[in-house]
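**User:** Here is a favour to ask of a fellow structure person. Please take any protein you like and set down a full record of it. No explanation is needed for now; the record alone will do.

**Assistant:**
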Amino acid sequence: MNTTELAGQADLQSLLLHHAIDRFNADYAAALDQRRFDAWPECFTEDARYWVQARENFDRGLPLALLALESQGMLRDRIYGTSHTIYHGPYYTRHVVSPARVTAAGAGTAADPIRAEANYAVFRTKPGSVSEVYNVGRYIDAFVHTSAGLKLLERRCVYDSEMVLNSLIYPI
């Protein structure tokens, strides 16, 4: 292969990776918006980490997070609590996720994950009410290749707001 063909192959691989991540994020958002909460932990590896953290803390390198889950089992526990033990007024969510920006096209292994970022906005609608902006920020992700496709090794939801409306019940 000549240099032009190699460059074309690299561009195609980059395009396919971006598409796979964007498709993953669309499926992730759809699962949450359709209230298929049992599907949410399946987006992650067994040893995954999931944080919801204020931008101020993230930018300062401070570890405090609103939510910090350190395994797929903890994500399942969170969904069980959300679905079976927490009482709250009902509402619907709508996630809008930007196209991803790959920041490091690693090998897709735990030792060398694919790193990407995407902006998100989550809207909340209570029955009989108007929609409101619930949470806005960016996903900072580490993906790995699995036999089931891409999965998250890490997802850090860094939100821009200084306050979260009411409480965080459903995943971001």
